[in-house]
Amino acid sequence: MTIFTEDFSTEPWWWQGFRPPEAAGGELPARAGTLVIGAGYAGTACALRLAEAGEDVVVLEAGALGQGASTRSGGQVSGGVNVGKSASRQPIPAHRKAALLRDAAAGFTLFETLLERHGIRCGYHRTGRVNGLWSPAHAAGWAKRLPELNEHARSEARLIDRDEVRAELGTSFYHGGVAIDRAGHVQPAEFYGGLLQAAQRAGARFIGTTPVRRLTCLPAGFRAETSRGTVTADRVVFATNAYTAEVARGLEPALRRGLVPVTTHMIATEEMPEDLARTVLPTNRGVSETRRVISHYRLSPDGRRLLFGGRASFFPLEERRTAAMLHRAMVARFPQLAGLRISNSWGGRVAMTLDRLPHIGGGEGRYFVAGCQGSGVTMMTYLGHSLAEKILRGSAEPVNSYDDGLPPHHPLYDGTPWFMPALGSWYQFLDRRERVAA
Fold it and tell me: Which residue stretches belong to region Disordered (predicted)?
């Protein structure tokens, strides 16, 4: 029996709610105050804030508007749960970590504020999240983290035992978990569409299918040569994140060397019968895991489909093969879904940094935002908004704790993630070993 529906598609299921517009923006203007390269969450949030302040903003996107991770993600939202979890070899000083968590919490607040202020309807459920414990040994590390998460990020998080996880999620797969109440999930493409419309109403101009081929520094500003002509600007913002190596390879090499693009995959099931749907995630939580190579999943906004994602492979594979891998992982957690077929399978990229922290920064007219670590819905929206605040202030002073310059580099890394297959295989081995030991 095939695991695929007759109308199986490799497009994101989210695009049924909002499809990235192929043609948008009209003619390329000759000049702009601020030129934003990249029309995802970060670039759009930056443009929205600048336009609301009266700035002349043009946003260029190499493909369809929002076609990257912003309309491909898992759509889970929180504020700070992943910050500093495995940031670097050196521990983050307590005062800096507290600031990072407070700012991440502010990102969640901004997300909810934007929904209300702009009337964005995007299937938002503030039903919390459960991080399933892959191994009983993981509970100790989370117990140490909970006080700072609750104090600084206001996560409303607590450890729960195996029976509580079973009641919350409808599966006995995990050795307990962490319940995080200040979290939820959203239809990410519809959120992006609402954010885009808000920015356009504020006066920002968005032009799709217009890659920037060359950027030249002028005595007063910049000249961008594109596939459709040339535009000059007082300042430029790079908001290309995990797609920097592809769409801005020769434009911002220092940024490229600090970002590690990682492909993640997702599947959407066909609609579940009502009695079966009641057995899966009965409290409508989002779910992540405490292992290194995580799976993450949640229900669709109407509660009838399971959206299941993760790092299906660290090697390039076509969507039916990654779908089969994710289907096996889904059934391992929910055996009752063995006969459920897959309607959609797709991939997208997230940007990791070597210190596992997001970064914004810039000066002298050249700015950037990057490195969401897979928490893009709230973090990239917040960082784009924060970068706009930095531009509006016109000051070299940091606007928040993530405003600390380019992500760190390594002499053996040039922006091409040649090491990911080996590193991914090593992480999978460590995960299996911990699981067996449990």
Answer: 70-90
